[in-house]
Amino acid sequence: MRKIKFSGILYWIAIFVYVFNVLGIIFTVVLNSLSKNWYTDWFPKIFTLEWYSYMAKEHDLPQLLFATFAVVISVALISLLIGYPAAYIFARYNFKFKNVLLSLLLVPMLVPPMTYGIPLAAMLYKLRLATRISGVILANLVPIIPYVVLILYPFIEQIDVSYESAARILGASRLRTFVKVLLPLTVPGIFTAALLSIVRTIAMFELTFLVAGPKSQTVIVALYYDAYAAGTRPPQAIDALAVVYFLITVTFLLIALKFASPTQFVYRGK
Predict the structure, then answer these.
(1) Exposure of 206 by Cβ count < 10 A (0-12 exposed, 13-18 middle, 19+ buried)?
(2) Rounded to whole angstroms, how far apart are CA atoms 49 and 63?
(3) Does residue 179 contact residue 145 with C-beta atoms inside 8 Å?
(4) Which residues form the ABC transmembrane type-1 domain (predicted)?
(5) From its phi and psi, is residue 231 left (phi > 0), alpha (psi between -120 and 50) or beta?
(6) Could you state, in order of their start, the residue ranges of all structural domains in the chain?
(7) Mind listing the pLDDT tens digit for each residue in 93-122?
């Protein structure tokens, strides 16, 4: 029999406690959003969808979801259009200050968003773009474009350059080589970058909060206003909106993980 190491026992205990706590919180929020008059018992005696109806009317849920998806899909598409060529250049060419530029790409993701979000918001207000969906999109592009570049970089780098060379030797133009060779090979990376950028944009609270208006706020900002803004809202209605936010985020995350493993997000050293 193999000896059970003490460190292994601690590892599995820590995993169990973590999973138990996370699932317990999620389960409690879901139950509370579906219950009525749940105070002392282990499980609610009355189940209802009343709080979801209340939340939908309070927030004009179709408009809230429209603004959320308009922002996240636009950010994902624009980030791909800008990030793919940048990732290709980083993956295929060696040039001066390449490592410096790669390091600079990390800055918007490492620095707290408020440090550059406040001056960015001030500029968007000055240009009269704030409180609009276009302003929210521009604000979220700042951290998302570098994020997309760093995801696509390893996907493009691991494709052998000989495929492109062979296509060029056979007479294919640069555009045809891209469409017929490079693009199909990087489809998993494109889908992964798009879906993960959607997940990250949905969770982007600070920048969206600074520039969003009543008709351009996303679900995460609406959830914050429910929990902390003036006025009294039923906690069950807040939990109902939290469940909607959780389902949207987890759905996109699971789809993204279907296309690629997280280990592919790290580029290979030379």
Answers:
(1) middle
(2) 20
(3) no
(4) 65-256
(5) left
(6) 6-47, 50-265
(7) 888 888 888 888 888 888 888 899 999 999
Query: With left for phi above 0 and alpha for psi between -120 and 50, is residue 154 left, alpha or beta?
Result: alpha
The type of residue at 173 is S
Question: pLDDT by residue (tens digit) across 11-29?
Answer: 888 988 988 888 888 888 8
- Interatomic CA distance for residues 159 and 94, integer angstroms: 16
Asked whether 135 and 200 are in contact (CB, 8 A), the reply is no
* Contact call for residues 24 and 207 (beta carbons, < 8 A): no
CA atoms within 13 A on the CB side of 58: 19
User: Widest CA span of the chain, in angstroms?
Assistant: 75
SS3 94: coil
Q: Which CATH architecture has domain 50-265?
A: Orthogonal Bundle (1.10)
